[in-house]
Design brief:
single chain; 272 residues; Rossmann fold; two-stranded antiparallel ribbon; 11 helices; PIG-L family deacetylase; LmbE-like_dom_sf; GlcNAc_PI_deacetylase-related
Amino acid sequence: MILAISPHLDDAAFSAGGALATWGRGGAVTVAGAQTAVTVATVFTQSHPAPAGFALRCQTDKGIAPDVDYLALRREEDRAACAALGADPVWLDLPEAPHRGYDSPEALFAGVHDGDRRTWRDALDRLRALVAARPPRLVLSCQGLGGHVDHLHVVRAVAALADETGLPVAWWRDAPYALRAPAAPPALGLPAGLSEVAVPVGGAALAAKLDACAAYASQIPYQFGRDAAAPPEAAMRERLAAFADAEGARLGAGRSAEAFAVADPAALADVR
């Protein structure tokens, strides 16, 4: 199995959807000669029936009524997105940062609160159980670009999982943060000594990625429509396609690509 570990319900598709579609659209991929499926496990997916304060604003500012189970809606979006990628969705049922005491947009990007220090351990516990039940041959996850606290917890948890298990990890560049600040550094918890590798994304895989991203309809206007002249979904498709072209050019791939940081480039070279 290839296991993509995503902080939120959209991060894997936005950031690595082209690679996931390349490997998953046929229902299986080959890693070092063995057939394996593609799974997208999202860490922060827990529903809260009566959100308040900033947590409530996080859904109403996207046009979602207060009485809607916002995370249930997003999980259904994720199910549709994973179907477009040829991946199996898994939800690890931890609460998002606004339900853990982060009370403003600024707080989400100001580091981990003292009262939130063990969340990465909770994530690690769930990831241990998942890899025991579904042993992967390759793990994908985020670099923590942008510094969102949920992404920082996932970086730390995945790095610890890799240390414990020896699993190879390919770390993606978090989108849309990488679109807004292409030179943004990765999180401090990322392992040292990594090399950047391009995974080429063909036309069919790029189309599948963009269709998967469009499934997150609750997020598209917020993430891609605020400064765009085009309708939000069209803006998303244009910007992510252009970013894939730019990544391919930056890495000398000769065509659209997604970038991953890896300890051993052979871990990705073996995937086909």
